[in-house]
Amino acid sequence: MNPFRILVSSVMAVCLSVLVGSVACQTANPPAQTTPPPSASGHKLGLDVNYVNSVGSQVVEQGLFEWNKNWADGTDSGGSLTEIPVDGIGPGPLSIPVSQCQFVTSAALTASQTTYATLNVYKRPGNNPDGGVGPTLIASASTTTNMLDAAADAPSTGSWFAWQNVVIPPVTGAFVAPGDQITVSITKTSTGVGVPQGILTCYSTIQ
């Protein structure tokens, strides 16, 4: 046999054996994943926490503190409420803006320009051992029909109706910080007006 043919046949045989061996030893590709991953457990607010839009469209404000006024006070000026502590601010950012306060009333109240009540919400620093730091106003509103004069008094609420959210607007730039103590007072003008039982809650907008 021709030596050249013998050499070519030998080389081809070696290459064929290498090719067959590599194909036989190759690891098979894993099967495609056909089972979807388990869905996230339901959130206590009824949200799909995997979707930011779902959270943003349903949770826009968060309660900071609240006060349960569990009595209806007297209609005379003696029914005024001196400043009392009602709640505190827990751990959180250094400055938490106050976006709005609301008083959910259980009964009606008639607004008046001469005989009304003013509800004030304050904060005091939690670390105030000598009591030397006074209150800072957070929100205020009077049960008047309109502003008493050129922005010198608290905003008016108008008349109240049972089960209504009465807006108590915050002052410009109002904020609270961890450790702040929240206080409330109610003052009466003229012969006064009775303030019904209700719950005051103040909120901060979630950015």
Your description of this structure?
This protein is α+β, with helices and mostly antiparallel strands and 207 residues long. The protein has a domain at 66-205: Jelly Rolls, CATH 2.60.120. Helices cover 14% and strands 31% of the residues. It contains two helices and ten strands, in the order ααββββββββββ. It has a four-stranded antiparallel sheet, with no helix packed on it. The protein has a four-stranded antiparallel sheet with strand order 2-9-5-6, with no helix packed on it. It starts with a helix and ends with a strand.
List the helices and strands and how they pair.
Elements: H1 3-25, H2 52-58, E1 61-69, E2 81-88, E3 96-97, E4 100-105, E5 116-124, E6 136-142, E7 164-168, E8 175-176, E9 181-189, E10 198-205
Antiparallel strand pairs: 1-10, 2-9, 3-8, 4-7, 4-10, 5-6, 5-9
**Number of E strands:** 10
Radius of gyration: 36 Å
Strand percentage lies at: 25-35%
The number of helices is: 2
CATH topology of the domain at 66-205: Jelly Rolls
Structural class: alpha+beta
Sheet with the most strands: spatial strand order? 1-10-4-7
Average of per-residue pLDDT values: 77
List the keywords.
elongated, 4-stranded antiparallel beta sheet, 14% helix, 10 strands, 207 residues, alpha+beta
In summary, what is this structure?
This protein has 207 residues and is an alpha+beta fold. It has helices at 3-25, 52-58, and strands spanning 61-69, 81-88, 96-97, 100-105, 116-124, 136-142, 164-168, 175-176, 181-189, 198-205.
